[in-house]
Amino acid sequence: MATDFFADIPTIRYEGPDSENELAYRFYDKNRVVLGKTMEEHLRFAACFWHTFCWPGSDVFGGGTFNRPWHAGANDSAAAAQKREVAFDFFSKLDVPYYCFHDVDVMADAQGVAEHRRYFAEAVDHLEKLQASSGRKLLWGTANLFSHPRFAAGGATNPDPEVYAFGAMQVRDALEATHRLGGANYVLWGGREGYETLHNTNMKRELDNLGRFLSLVVEHKHKIGFNGTILIEPKPHEPTKHQYDFDTATVYGFLKAYGLENEVKVNIEANHATLAGHTFEHEIATAGALGIFGSIDANRGDHQNGWDTDQFPNSVEELTLAVLEIIRAGGFTTGGFNFDAKVRRQSMDAVDLFHGHVGGIDVVAKGLLNAAALIEDGRLDAIKSERYAGWDGDFGKQVGGLDLAGIADLAEQKAIDPKPRSGRQERIENIVNRIVNK
Q: Binding residues for Mg(2+) 1, per the UniProt record (predicted)?
């Protein structure tokens, strides 16, 4: 399965914190046991097809800079096969257990339903063989209902029922392919499920169509016996002005409205969280509190840019806080850390792909070690438990069993005069910093 593209790059191995090898893991030791599980089991790393092997290094001001051998043959099945083989060589040399893809990432460009289905089926046959020979597994699959011009006004919210039907075809085939390939999840990202202006948008109809579409996906999941998790990936805007899956809380409200809160969870992307005005850990904690935490797209934005830059994560503190909330949410079940990140346009060499992923993997791994240290230290949990201890005492238990009038009467009967109490924020921040910077 090895290809020539990465011939000069060895398989990445763990060499420890003192290693001077820039293409070695310093913190990610996949077999190291942390809080009762190996690091590989905790983090479930994946690399993606789209940013890593499909993006040509273009932007709105200029063409692609990468010039990968397969980029010149978008309509060629042989070029698509070469891309799949190079990708699996990369996954194996990076030594990540999982990968992710959109349908159009892995196939030749197609025109019309018949050609799309034929090219995608050809790709899935090949992916099945590549998985078997490499030992890599599918974290999640999805269908791209946002790139082709037909989806300019969305897929599941499109005003044209023919576009809606074409999207249903793609999702049906991608969901069935994910099931066949043993995928652990299926993701729906509403890349254009939103609006540019309300003047030409019937929001009620679009939301109802989106709710019906998602309900049909869940129904088909059960029909074919897929045991993985259906995930929605929140994003507030871009490419649309406003997207219906704005953030985790908005997604939960949507799921509740259409009776899907027990069927669908969220795939949280760090850069999307910050675009929504939240922190990464806030979105994870929200999902955990609402019972819909599923999986992670690991990346970061740029604080000076207001768009989705999809850079590799490089903040140990940010990832420490994120992994801490993942552990508090119960950890991954079917989800994992997928690197939805791309090298910069000027990083055009093959080795740059490894530098980006190796650095990101080590940052997440160090975050896990720090999160475990915070949990084992115990002070954060003790401070939080003490802060809410009153709810476990006699008065708190009484309040928990009364109606509004009863609580008010109890306050009067006890002649309570509560005083403000410190939240210990500075002490908490110091504890976190001392462990992160140890």
A: 233, 269, 297, 340
